[in-house]
Amino acid sequence: MTDTNTDDRPLAGKIALVTGASRGIGAATAVSLAAKGAHVVLTARKVRDLEAVEDRVHDAGGSATIAPLDLTDGESIGRLAQAIAERWDKLDYLVINAAQLPTLTPVTQIDAKQFNQALTLNVLSTQALIAAFDPLLKRAEKGRIVGLTSSVGSDPRPFWGAYGATKAAFENLLECHGKEVERISEMRVAIIDPGATRTSMRERAYPGEDPQTVKPPEAVGDRIAALLEEDFANLHRERVEITA
Predict the structure, then answer these.
(1) What would the pLDDT profile of 57-80 be if each residue is shown by its tens digit?
(2) Is 93 a catalytic residue?
């Protein structure tokens, strides 16, 4: 039978999962990946916001599937992995973007409930995602994981202790996994620091900042999509330095 697929976009035929895809960097990354031909699975909690991003993808000529779920529910992650396995039998790209920012405060005053929530989403869910999708990433020709971090994970800053601790653990998990798989598979891991970006999280952290003085999330999304198109060496690290 003749192959009727005439899509010559660079990521045509690739399946990508983007967490935290309902807004900000996650949404921008999903749109950029879809524009390059990837079919993007969009995950976040709010259905209406995911549908809005799905519309953006379709308007740009791409394709997407929404998968509303709470990443702090490990069983939901397992069900999503099973659904993707049944439909595509592989996952080419896992972009781990979803994160929670606890209130900025001295270490002595960290709210235990907020800290626990951030640890669950930023760290425990990361491990659950890696574990659930590892088989599907290994079935892909070149499975790739991209994790979005923050400079406070490696460069501690006053009042950022709770978030910084979760990002330090996040990076450690990704680096360990990258080293564990590099000799037994074609899978590769990258850790990306988006730098100052116009997101709702940054707005909460810097309420007095003029958002027009920092780059839009589309700049980061475009860079992640370009990085996956170009491909990268294992344990690639990069800070996205693009002026607004």
Answers:
(1) 999 889 999 999 999 988 999 999
(2) no
